[in-house]
Amino acid sequence: MSFVKFENVDLAYAPGGALAIQDVSLEVKEGEFVAVVGPSGCGKSTLMKLISGLRMPSGGYVYVDGRQVGGPLKIVGMAFQNSNLLPWRTTLDNVMLPLEIVEPYRSTLKKERVRYEAEARQLLARVGLAGFEDKFPWELSGGMQQRASICRALIHQPRLLMLDEPFGALDAFTREELWCMLRDLWQQQPFTVILVTHDLREAVFLADTVYVMSKRPGRILVRREIELPRPRDLDVTYTDAFAGHVHELREHIGRVRAS
Amino acid sequence: MKVNLVKAAPWLVVAGMFLLWELICVGFAVPEFLLPAPSAVWKVGVEQFEPIMMHATQTFITTLAGFAIAVAVGLLIGMAVGSSPLLYRAMYPLLVGFNSIPKVAFVPVLVVWFGIGTVPAILTAFLISFFPVVVNVATGLATLEPELEDVLRSLGASRIDILGKVGLPRAMPYFFASLKVAITLAFVGSVIAETVASNLGIGYLMMSASSSMNMPLVFAGLIVIGVMGVVMYELFAFVEKRMTSWAHRKPDGAA
Predict the structure, then answer these.
(1) Is B33's Cβ below 8 Å from some Cβ in A?
(2) How many independent structural domains does chain B possess?
């Protein structure tokens, strides 16, 4: 059974206005790593808003975990290109923020603070931020901020992680480091990932399935399964199979942009 | 050496101003009923120390009372206006229009309502100083990053949650910055009201002194107001720095 399912979904931000996405149908299995690529402004971020329940579709249906989405879902974690860490909180307190909102953590936070804090420290250690827990976000590098931001998205153990170009503002080396960090997190403790990106290598390296979207109004043009063996190492990005996938996706994007 | 100069600079400027003022008065033999020299102001200040202090205390307390109301009301309106686009649109023209009315023109109305005395002065201080608090708090809340709001809303955060966890802490630097402006405006408000409609306070003291051509006393009053304003401004600047150090970090990353 599919975990996330779109059935002929349309969305117009203003009623009767131009469609941001049109007739999108897709299915994501539990534990699957999905990447959505497309030219900028193609409605990739709109997909995220629909899945997380921040927006209701103008037409069609969105199901998550077998139920139609009718409002914000608490089983979702999100991270964006901008880390959006709160500058008045330490890294640890930033990561703990969702626990102050989501049940059952919210009502047990006072009693279980020590345990939750230990969990947050452990998660930070897993992404290589041990020793930076009590630093403020502005004392961290861009890559470290993004790691912390992903920890914040995962601390309440969401079943679905949604990432909107999370590595878009980082330099190439840091970006590849974070690919591996995300890969490891996902492989150690399975959750479903929907990654919106315009980096095709990123999509092919990380995802099980890549969807290509068209220009506005966004439609799904192509669905490609990436059957590269796991666990994938960065070396895989230099193989012919990898290059073939990237090349093929690039051609689709090229056609979209030219049209 | 450089640090010392930076620290001493404001004192040097003030001393220089008084020196220049004294030299002009002495050099051009300016009559005292036009512009008293600082030495004459100082003399009258020492002579009349007690009445000046009595009136200054009155003005100070009046100002603080008006300022406190302004902070409370400003925070409330600012929070309402800043967290609801509808209220923002609805209230802003009215607030701006109200703020454009010269408050001195409003004092007679307050006198009719509340009589001569402390109440109109407190209210004038409040009316003149709450606007910057409203604007700054509203701005701080309204400029919340939409992605951050999405993160919280997708977790099921209520509006109150978002306001408490992110909106208000984020608006704090704006709020404390507005306090510095508001406290100086509050002095303007209370002194204006005292000159028109009171028999107490520095404003009244200056009014009665000028009617008897006691210009040194008028200037002593002006200087007392100025000093109180600077002291309160510095106090709130200090509080601002302490409360929102994260917003005043150095560019090199040191806190």
Answers:
(1) no
(2) 1
Across the interface, whether the CB atoms of A156 and B155 are under 8 A apart is answered yes
- Asked whether residue A249 carries a pLDDT value surpassing 80, the answer given is yes
B165 at interface of A, judged by CB pairs closer than 8 A:
yes
Closest C-alpha among B14, B244, B105, B162 to residue A100: B162
Q: Which residue has the tokens 């409002």?
A: A71
Q: Is residue B70 part of a domain?
A: yes
Q: What is the pLDDT of residues B199-222, one digit of tens each?
A: 899 999 999 999 998 999 999 999
Is there a single domain that holds both residue A259 and residue A168? Answer: yes
Q: What are phi and psi of B249, to 5 degrees?
A: -70, 155
Extract the tokens encoding B87: 């209220």
CATH number for the domain that contains residue B164: 1.10.3720.10
Domain that holds residue A202: 30-55+69-75+159-259
Q: Would you call B148 and A84 a contact, using CB atoms and an 8 Å cutoff? A: yes
In this structure, the answer to whether residues A121 and A166 fall within a common structural domain is no
ipTM score here?
A: 0.76
Give the whole-angstrom CA distance, residue A191 versus residue A197: 19
Query: Is B150 an 8 Å CB contact of chain A?
Result: yes
Please indicate, yes or no, if residue B3 is contained in any of the structural domains.
no
**Candidates A62, A90, A93, A101, partner chain B, best to mutate (most B CBs within 10 A):** A101
